[in-house]
């Protein structure tokens, strides 16, 4: 990105990024009935498999710098490969493996995965997109010793807003976790109206790890902040237990016949279908509705799913207006960006090709 789009950071950044590791250690010690010092003495030296690019906050501020700050090893991958990741976990005795869900799918699909010794892996962190429930079950079976965690964050908040690990995450696989104690959150319908408890709204945050400003860009800074609160552009809510749920990006919300539809919510339901491996939903222009929701899915190997079946699946779990009007099946993986997230712009182009076909 242009240098001027980067946020100016605070001195407390590394302390925030080390919080996740400390929380996992504390939970593990409590579970074993020992103190942290005893646990540390029994554990093998920590080693991080760094799969994120260093221009991304997950690679630099949540990965490389905290690892170096605590004197641990960091093994860097130049280019992502599921089988290469498994080789490195075995050869380097990797203990921590962060990644987006797509990367874990790649590792789980490696032919002959059982020949690799993955026993050193004790911590898995994911984020960046919703965690499919079926993927979580497969990860638990493949990495039985690893504590699995999830979270939500953005560059402007130093990559970390909420966190959930271990048994809490397994019990609530669709949540992004509890908000970090260094931050406050609120949920807004508009710039001046706060959402009701449990109602989705734009997530605003403030606290020690939030940026001061965009470098040399006062206009962007003014747009991003309201009365000291950072407007994230993400939509979410807190449940009765205080866990954060991400509904969607504001820009990824479509309005069809006056109804707001959050793509991530529909995608999450599609991914729960046993025959669906990948799913992407987005809006296309419709003269009557304004926009209509469509979906592109990649089926699991050996599965034959049809449009009507998937529409009935979504309709049985969500309101009728959230059912995709059309569902296309792709025989190739969904287009993704460098961070492994679905490239919606590329998918719209593919959809246009499907439509013409």
Compact overview of the structure:
This protein is of the alpha+beta class and 357 residues long.
Could you characterize what this model shows?
- This protein is of the alpha+beta class.
- It has helices at residues 13-17, 19-32, 36-42, 57-69, 82-92, 101-108, 133-142, 166-171, 218-224, 263-271, 307-315, 344-356, and strands spanning 7-8, 47-50, 73-76, 96-99, 123-126, 147-152, 162-165, 177-179, 183-188, 201-207, 213-214, 225-226, 229-238, 243-249, 253-256, 259-262, 276-286, 290-299, 326-329.
- Helix 5 crosses helix 6.
- The model is unreliable at 1-6 and 9-16 (pLDDT under 50).
- What portion of residues is helical? 25-40%
> What general outline do the C-alpha atoms trace?
globular
Structural class: alpha+beta
The count of β-strands is: 19
**How much β-strand is present in the residues?**
25-35%
Q: What is the gyration radius calculated from CA atoms?
A: 21 Å
Instruction: Specify the biggest β-sheet.
Output: 10 strands, mixed
Distance between the termini: 36 Å
Number of helices: 12
Unreliable stretches, pLDDT < 50, 5 or more residues?
1-6, 9-16
Average pLDDT, rounded to a whole number, is: 85
